[in-house]
Amino acid sequence: MTDSIFSKIIRNEISSHKIYEDDFVIAILDIGPLSEGHTLVIPKEPAATMDELSDGHAAALGRVLPRIARAIKKVTGAESYNILQNNGADAGQAVEHVHFHIIPRFVDRGEIVEGKPDKENGPGLRTTWKPGTLTQEEAVELGKHIKRLL
Ligand code: AMP
Predict the structure, then answer these.
(1) What does the pLDDT average to over 114-142?
(2) In this model, does residue 1 exceed pLDDT 70?
(3) What is the pLDDT of residue 128?
(4) Higher-confidence residue: 96 or 127?
(5) What's the predicted TM-score (pTM) here?
(6) CATH code of the domain in which 78 resides
């Protein structure tokens, strides 16, 4: 079990800008926002990564994420947003307590290039996505092993 900064926030030992709380989940404004409205949705269970989280807390997270996203959209005027969830240091996780980022994306607040907002700019999450390939054989083999564990 970890005792992260988020556990301390959950126990109100550290102050935060809490925007939602129920028996299983809190949501707080991110202290280093990528964009206006950047919010963290955090289960109260102190699991470090998603694979360690109980079904009950996972369900509670899933239940509130859409509602919180709707409120953020409405308040910020964002039409698009990313939900990001990092697991492990190599995946960019800094705080070892499960959390979902809701990050509004504002391309219209970025640079205007040739009269149009540049999609590569503006506040929000920007990722580099380099798709690979998956052969039929690889998919069957990999899928078989994963399915066996589910
Ligand atoms: P991650 O890299 O997915 O672990 O993201 C951790 C996030 O937690 C970062 O976006 C931080 O800005 C945010 N964060 C860290 N400490 C606090 C805090 N005390 N209150 C609010 N957000 C925090």
Answers:
(1) 89
(2) no
(3) 87
(4) 96
(5) 0.94
(6) 3.30.428.10
Question: DSSP assignment of the chain, as one string?
Answer: ----HHHHHHTTSS---EEEE-SSEEEEE-SS-SSTT-EEEEESS--SSGGGS-HHHHHHHHHHHHHHHHHHHHHH--SEEEEE---SGGGT--SSS--EEEEEE-GGGS-EETTEE-TT-SSS-----------HHHHHHHHHHHHHT-
Tally of structural domains, the chain: 1
The boundaries of the domain holding residue 74 are: 5-149
Would you say the CB of residue 32 lies under 6 angstroms from ligand 1? Answer: yes
pLDDT of residue 2: 54
- 36 pocket-lining for ligand 1 (C-beta < 6 Å): no
Which atom of ligand 1 has the smallest separation from the CA of 38? 10
